[in-house]
């Protein structure tokens, strides 16, 4: 697997450098400057071999308290942004009954415990809220990637986007997750910023194009 992380380091470094002048240097970092974008992908995946995709009309809300599906205005803004940038990369949206090559799952993640968010814990419940039967592969499991996120400490939560390989699911007897992107930072659960956040993930992942 390969990993790329985009950090807005300039402002952070400047703030840290000023610790002798202020007790709370990070208070002066804007919401934009606080955001971190992490993308992982399966280096064996040939993204040009996929043409169609499907996406749910809801977002999975994942926390240590519950797991549910929601479709609020911010959720819809993220779903619309994913569709927009998938289309720009050359993929065609189809219904999940039309034998799509890929599936896209969007997740809103909350962590109310102390410490860091564990991506390993996130995968533990994956089949519970994204049943393979939904994509027509009942009885299959997921090919869970071995990488994990340890994304500092989370106070507001995170958004993630997962790309699933349906095209090869029958042959491999599992649905492999071939790309995932994580957005963490202040103000990300806001309709007005959804497009820019998803764009950042796709910009950081130029290999996703099938053109």
TrEMBL record:
InterPro entries: DUF4136
Signal sequence segment: 1-17
Alphabetical UniProt keywords: Signal
Domain of life of the native organism: Bacteria
Domain DUF4136: 39-207
Stored Pfam families: DUF4136 (PF13590)
Protein name per UniProt: DUF4136 domain-containing protein
